[in-house]
From TrEMBL:
Transmembrane segments: none
Pfam hit, one: SLFN_AlbA_2
InterPro entries attached to this UniProt entry: RecG_C_sf, Schlafen_AlbA_2_dom, Schlafen_AlbA_2_dom_sf, WH-like_DNA-bd_sf, WH_DNA-bd_sf
Protein name: AAA family ATPase
Entry-linked SUPFAM superfamilies: Winged helix' DNA-binding domain
């Protein structure tokens, strides 16, 4: 490590991968707890002879070799560590004082120090206790994606056949000779790798990814009860929100609902690209929401978040990362968190190849506001794209004009999105108008309306023999 790098670390302070330790004699147990936590997380550097505030105190120069020898002996002692972590040491000097740098790489296995596993959270070493935290730690060390979890009891009845057909049409619209065109529903699910075998116990069945993409809402809620995506607008009422959309349905229709919600709240502008008019807003919304849904760690109870504020739009979702910190597009190596879900979104045209999302967000954010987006990864992935509202005030932007209900899309639209569309246009909806716009039965439309009423989003008003629905004012 160069003197300049060392100076920069001292100035930046402790973090998830940097720890300062005073070392008056031989290293104490707290040093080895940090060794354990670094090995279990992303790796990191421990600097012996540095106080918490970055002041260099140094170690005893006569004991430098003894300290390094003691450190190696303890990490190799099976009564102390299981398994033994890898460490390397380096002696640095500053102002004539000796500092020992201990580099700990990320381990391929879960490490325990004196029978206890430690993990790193910000600049703190914490004991890992409880089944959930331990399972998360082991999952991080394995080449395993939670989307691949197999549920042998699932059958085709647990899936939305109408949604499977919609996705088939979307894939064929992009590529007329798509292999899904002539497959049965069951064959399509297998072709999309949504059915598989758990190699640990040889059980076979539909994967969690299949339910998240195409499952009925009741099945999704049963297998993934914490799953939801919360979208809010917080521009006027900064304590609560101005508008809100909470989705718990499948990922395909969640994508429709979330993109429609975001587009209604954000100002639009167009510019010419290769003699064609392009909407940077629509591309930004598409990439942010696709990333929010595709690359989430679905074993985590943390909900996905989309927040539109006066400064811009930001998203947050649980992540399974091998890196923590700000992402730089110049040295960014994309890695799919859920390759099955990502592949399905690509087939139906809701996402492009891996890594294109960040490139598009940088490109079109500059076109949109002249500013660059920000990304950071860790246990939580965060994205932010600046937005300049044309009115310059903390009021919601004007919505874009809505098509007349008679000009329906030939494939219809998601039910909840149709409800929002009609409310924007007319102020009220009925099960019949929703059914016509979404191409579903009135019974299906009514089920969605009743559910939104029970959540306090809508209120039902009886008009003669009919019931109409309008937005709740609470």
């Amino acid at each position: 490590m160069s003197p300049e790098e060392f100076e920069g670390i001292l100035a930046s302070g402790e973090s998830s991968c940097v720890e300062f330790k005073r070392c008056g004699g031989l290293p104490e147990d707290d040093v080895y707890e940090t060794v354990c936590s670094f090995g279990n997380r992303y790796g990191g550097n421990i600097f012996l002879g540095v106080l918490n505030d970055g002041t260099v105190e140094g170690v005893n120069p006569k004991r430098v070799d003894e300290i390094q020898r003691n450190l190696v002996n303890r990490v190799c002692n099976p009564n102390q560590f299981d398994p033994s972590p890898m460490v390397e040491t380096e002696v640095l000097t500053k102002d004539g004082l000796a500092v020992i740098r201990v580099w700990v790489p990320m381990s391929a296995s879960v490490i325990r120090f004196k029978g206890v596993a430690y993990d790193r959270a910000f600049d703190v070493d914490r004991k890992v206790t409880g089944d959930y935290l331990l399972s998360q730690l082991y999952m991080r060390k394995q080449n395993y994606y939670y989307e691949q979890k197999v549920f042998p009891s699932l059958t085709l009845d647990d899936f939305r056949v109408d949604l499977i057909e919609r996705c088939r049409r979307m894939a064929v619209a992009r590529r007329p000779d798509h292999p899904w065109r002539d497959l049965t529903a069951e064959e399509l699910l297998r072709s999309a790798n949504l059915w598989g075998v758990d190699i640990s116990d040889k059980t076979s069945g539909y994967r969690l990814a299949s339910v998240l993409l195409l499952g009925k809402d009741s099945v999704i809620g049963s297998l993934c009860p914490a799953y939801r995506t919360d979208a809010i607008v917080r521009r006027i009422d900064l304590d609560r929100y101005d508008d809100r959309l909470l989705t718990k349905t499948n990922l395909v229709e969640s994508y429709d609902l979330l993109t429609g919600f975001a587009r209604r709240q954000l100002p639009d502008s167009f510019y010419l690209e290769n003699d064609q008019s392009v909407s940077p807003r629509d591309i930004i919304v598409r990439e942010l929401i696709a990333n929010l849904l595709i690359h989430r760690e679905y074993s985590s109870p943390m909900p996905g978040m989309l927040v539109i504020g006066n400064d811009g739009i930001r998203t947050e979702n649980a992540s399974r990362s091998f890196y923590e910190g700000r992402l730089d597009p110049d040295n960014f190596n994309p890695m799919s968190k859920n390759p099955i879900i990502a592949g399905f979104f690509t087939e139906i045209g809701l996402a492009d190849e891996l890594g294109s999302g960040m490139r598009n967000l940088y490109k079109y954010s500059r076109k949109y506001t002249g500013q660059e987006p920000e990304f950071s990864d860790g246990d939580v992935f965060r994205a932010f794209v600046p937005v300049e509202f044309t009115d310059g005030s903390a009021t919601a932007p004007q919505e874009q004009p809505r098509p007349n209900i008679r000009n329906k899309h030939p494939e219809g639209m998601a039910v909840d999105d149709a409800i929002a569309w009609l409310l924007d246009a007319n102020g009220t909806v009925t099960s019949k108008t929703v059914a016509e716009l979404a191409h579903v039965t009135p019974r299906t439309a009514n089920r969605h309306l009743v559910a939104m009423t029970s959540r306090g989003i809508l209120v039902a008003v009886k008009k003669g023999r009919f019931i109409i629905y309008e937005r709740s004012t609470d």
